[in-house]
Amino acid sequence: MDELAATMTGFARTLRAAGVAADHERTQNLLRALDHLDVTDQREVYWAGRLTLCATPDDLPRYDRCFAAYFGGRKAVLSRTATTSVTRHLAERQGDDGDEGGDDDGTAAPATASRIEVLRHRDVARLTEAERAEVHRMMALLKGGRARRRSRRFESAHRGALDQRRTIRDALRKGEVARLRHRRHTTRPRTVVMFVDVSGSMAPYAETLLRFAHALVRSEPRATRVYSVGTRLTPITAELRHRDPGTALNEVSKVVPDWSGGTRLGEELKEFLARFSARGAIALIASDGWERGDPGLLGAQMARLARQAYRVIWVNPHKGYADYQPLTGGMRAALPHLDDLVAGHSLAAFERLSERLAHA
Q: Per-residue pLDDT tens for 23-56?
């Protein structure tokens, strides 16, 4: 049953990436339902998942697509005492079908369970074109959840601080204080300010980082600001608001003048802090830290940014490797001012980053 739980938890994770509300509670309901069903019968597994994991009619076509992709259109071979999991069954099936890297024409083939798990953890710089297209498709489905902060605005409430104005207004209208009115602060999503390094050393990761930025902008358009950094600071939030990721990236490519150049992050942060503000926001810097400018300037600007921002997170693609050490001049200058240094090399890393932003 541990294998069954692992398989169905992975399926629920795939559904969440596709936008289905398959949360922990719904997943537990599915596992409880499967205790009373024949899990070797694909039809029973399908209907159990559909009835427990889907919340709205919009979830149904997404569920059908994910079920077909995850289980590969084959029977889910898994008994309560068997040692062969659904994932292993699909891996054997895929081995019979041939190379799992996809077709050579650059199109992304439907991903089975084993292939999804492999792609989630692979470095995007080492993927084939077909695999990268599949990862980018799944990244477009990321829900860029956002932690909320208290705003200055108020709303009426059943309890909380006394709303004197409404209470007095009611008393004047009715001739007596018939009821005490209360109020509380409203909340709003915390702003994310993201800087995407488009220099030459970041070229293998720039497109994936921009697609992640697109997911953030699409999920919270009013609470996300994105800038490309290299040799110039370029605002690209407006271009990333387009619904289609491919179109959005085409628009970005037209306005960014310094693709595959050097990195002068210190100068660009100084320009940003002179023109804009990150007060109360989460500052997200996606770079490998290969600073061509003065590391001392970068350190000073990072200190200023840290004093303004609610949290400073540095996303480094090389952080995903166990032997990584922040030895570049830029990373050494920035490190004392960071709240988090996280990986940014794979889909799984971006999923973790998205969850971090949702709970920061």
A: 888 888 898 888 888 888 888 888 989 989 988 8
Of the candidates 188, 248, 186, 247, which has an alpha carbon nearest to the alpha carbon of residue 217? Answer: 248
Residue 142 to residue 239: CA distance in whole angstroms: 19
Q: Report all structural domains of the chain as residue ranges with CATH numbers, in order of start.
A: 2-121 (no CATH), 148-189 (no CATH), 192-359 (3.40.50.410)
pTM strictly above 0.70: no
56-70, 113-127, 171-185, 324-338: range with highest mean pLDDT: 324-338
Contacts of 107 (CB under 8 A, 6+ apart): 130, 133
C-alpha span between 201 and 289 (Å, rounded): 9
What does the block give as tokens for 265? Answer: 């992050």
Measure the CA angle with vertex 46, ends 8 and 27; round to 5°. Answer: 35
CA pair distance 237, 245, nearest whole angstrom: 13
What is the per-residue pLDDT for 113? 59
| Site of tokens 């104005």 | 165
The C-alpha angle with vertex 229 and arms to 143 and 192, in degrees rounded to 5, equals 35
Q: Annotate 168-221 with DSSP letters as a single string.
A: HHHHHHHSS-----EEEEEEEEPPEEEEEE-SGGGHHHHHHHHHHHHHHHHH-G
In angstroms, the CA 350 to CA 346 distance is 7
The span from the CA of 238 to the CA of 236, in Å, is 6
- What does residue 289 show for φ and ψ, rounded to 5 degrees? 85, 10
Q: What are phi and psi of 238, to 5 degrees?
A: -60, -40
User: Which residues have a Cβ under 8 Å from the Cβ of 175 and sit 6 or more positions away?
Assistant: none
Q: How many helices and strands in the chain, by DSSP H and E?
A: 15, 9
